[in-house]
Amino acid sequence: MDSLRNHFLISMPHLTDTFFEKTVIYICDHDSQGSMGLVINRPLPSARAAMILQALGLDSLEEEGGIKDIYYGGPVQPNVGFVLHTPEYEVDGTLPIAEDIFLTTSSEIMKDIQTGAGPAQYRLTMGYAGWGPEQLEREIANGDWLVIPASGEFIFSEADHGKWTEAARKFGIEISQFSGFGGEA
């Protein structure tokens, strides 16, 4: 399978576990060693987000309107922050994923956001979704995920509550029409 880097995974209705039900995941890396992605449509509850900002010493960002939401990025390393952002911002360790989407894990980005020197658009996530070698391919073959090309505009501009159904529509599917069963024929 070709690399799924810079693609969205759209969970199918039969995925009802608490981690991936109705999620859209942005794939940041995909190769023979496995895959890594970030859930982009699940904001953390505001009380949890406030606790995270306070623990990071960034609670003033919430008051100043700098950080609107913190997102659940996935079940792996839930205490580690990942920032997807637009390409005008770059520091040591920033990884360009696509022309319009970069990834930074350095704490420097949070300080720069606080001072107004950060990226124009960003999404702070805690944790990530990860798959071992060939695991994601098996899940796709099983019908667990739809795969479509990604866009930064969709990540940063589409309303969170509509991302799952809108991503499926971009695939040409009305996802609510699907049954809740997956599997192989």
What does this structure look like?
The protein has helices spanning 46-55, 59-63, 108-115, 135-141, 152-157, 163-170; strands at residues 7-11, 24-31, 34-39, 70-72, 76-85, 95-98, 101-104, 122-131, 145-149. With 185 residues, it is α+β, with helices and mostly antiparallel strands. The protein has a domain at 7-79 and 126-177: VC0467-like. The chain is globular and about 45 Å long. It starts with 6 loop residues before the first strand and ends in a 15-residue tail after the last helix.
Round the mean pLDDT to the nearest integer and report it.
87
Structural class: alpha+beta
Strand content: 25-35%
CA-atom Rg in angstroms: 16 Å
Largest beta-sheet characterization: 9 strands, mixed
Task: Please tally the helical runs, counting DSSP H or I stretches of 4 or more residues.
Answer: 6
Spell out the helices and strands N to C: EEEHHEEEEHEHEHH
Q: How much helical structure, as a percent, in the residues?
A: 10-25%
CATH topology of the domain at 7-79 and 126-177: VC0467-like
* CATH superfamily descriptor of the domain at 7-79 and 126-177: VC0467-like
Shape: globular
The CATH class of the domain at 7-79 and 126-177, by name, is Alpha Beta
Low-confidence stretches: 180-185
Q: Give the termini distance in whole angstroms.
A: 20 Å
Per DSSP E runs of 2 or more residues, the count of β-strands stands at 9
Architecture per CATH nomenclature, i.e. the level-2 architecture of the domain at 7-79 and 126-177: 3-Layer(aba) Sandwich
